[in-house]
Design brief:
Blueprint (H helix, E strand, L loop, with lengths): L14 H13 L31 E6 L11 H7 L3 E5 L6 H5 L8 E6 L10 E4 L14 E6 L2 H10 L7 E5 L17 H11 L4 H25 L12 H4 L8
Parallel strand pairs: 1-2, 1-5, 3-5, 3-6
Antiparallel strand pairs: 4-6
The protein binds zinc ion (ZN).
Length: 254
C-alpha cells in the first residue's frame, strides 16, 4: 500500500500520564445548553462552519452509541461535517443496513470496520474478510463502510444488537502508527483516524485522509487540550452515567 503519512505532533502525553489523560478526556462532556444542535460541539468550537468539505467516493456510515454523542473528544461528527458522503446515526439498533443508512443499500457491497484489540504484526494496514470468514487476497470493491463509534464495550454492544452487520464484509485495521490522541491502549485509533486510514487503503485520494487528520488535530484535539487545562468543571454532568465503560476505553472510541 501507500507510504505512511508524515508524523504529526498530535496530543501525546508522556507514557506514565497517558492513561490518566485518556480517561480524563473521555469524561469531558459538552453541556447541552452549550452545544451546537448539529455537531454537539461547544458553540466556540462548532465544526459546522469550520470543517473543510471533502468529496469522498466511498460512503461512510457511523453508528454511534448514545453515550458517545456529547463527549468532547468524539470525532464522529467531524466525519459528517467534512465528508460529502457520510452520515452519523445515534442509537443502539436498526433492522438492516438500508434502515440504518436511510436509503437502499446492498450489504454485499459494504464493509463493516473493526479495530482489533490486540493487532498482530501484519504487512497490511487493512485486512478484508468474506462473510464466511475467509481472508480476501485483494481488497474487494466497497461502496460504503459502517464504523461503530464507542468504547470497545459499546462497540461490542452495537455489534451484537445489529446482526445484519454479519452480511457485510469485515474490514480490520492494523494501524502502523499510534493514535494522535492519548489512548489507554496503544492499539486504539480515534474514529476519524480509523475512517481516514480505511478510505486511503480502499483507494481514496491519500490527500483526503491527510485532510481528515489535520482537521482532527486542529478542530478536536487542540480544543480538547484547552478544555482539559481549563478543567472539567465546564461539564458538570460529565462522566457520571457511564463511568463503568471507561475501564474498557481507549479502543475505537471517539
Ligand atoms: Zn456545529
Amino acid at each position: 500500500m501507500t507510504d505512511m503519512p508524515p508524523r504529526r505532533r498530535g496530543f501525546r502525553p508522556p507514557g506514565r500520564q497517558r492513561r490518566a489523560v485518556a480517561l480524563a478526556l473521555t469524561r469531558i462532556k459538552v453541556p447541552r445548553e452549550e452545544a451546537c444542535a448539529r455537531c454537539f460541539r461547544p458553540q466556540d468550537d462548532c465544526l459546522c462552519a469550520r470543517a473543510a468539505r471533502i468529496e469522498n467516493r466511498i460512503f461512510v456510515l457511523v453508528l454511534q452509541h448514545p453515550q458517545e454523542q456529547r463527549k468532547l473528544i468524539n470525532s464522529a461528527y467531524l466525519a459528517q461535517c467534512a465528508l460529502a458522503r457520510s452520515r452519523v446515526r445515534v442509537g443502539l439498533s436498526w433492522p438492516n443496513l438500508s434502515a440504518a443508512l436511510g436509503s437502499p443499500a446492498r450489504p454485499a457491497e459494504w464493509g463493516a470496520l473493526f479495530l482489533k484489540r490486540d493487532p498482530q504484526p501484519s504487512g497490511k494496514a487493512i485486512d478484508a474478510y468474506t462473510r464466511r470468514g475467509g481472508r480476501h487476497g485483494e481488497l474487494p470493491p466497497i461502496a460504503g463502510i459502517v464504523v461503530l463509534d464507542g468504547t470497545w464495550k459499546q462497540a461490542k454492544t452495537l455489534w451484537w444488537r445489529n446482526p445484519w452487520l454479519l452480511k457485510l464484509r469485515r474490514l480490520t485495521l492494523n494501524p502502523h502508527a499510534p493514535s494522535l490522541r492519548p489512548q489507554a491502549r496503544a492499539a486504539g485509533l480515534s474514529t476519524i483516524e480509523a475512517i481516514g486510514l480505511t478510505l486511503r487503503e480502499l483507494g481514496e485520494d491519500p490527500a483526503l485522509a491527510e485532510s481528515l487528520v489535520d482537521q482532527y488535530v486542529r478542530l478536536v484535539l487542540e480544543p480538547a487540550q484547552r478544555y482539559l487545562r481549563e478543567g472539567a468543571h465546564r461539564a458538570p454532568d460529565g462522566g457520571a452515567e457511564d463511568s463503568g465503560a471507561h475501564e474498557d476505553d481507549g479502543g475505537q472510541a471517539g
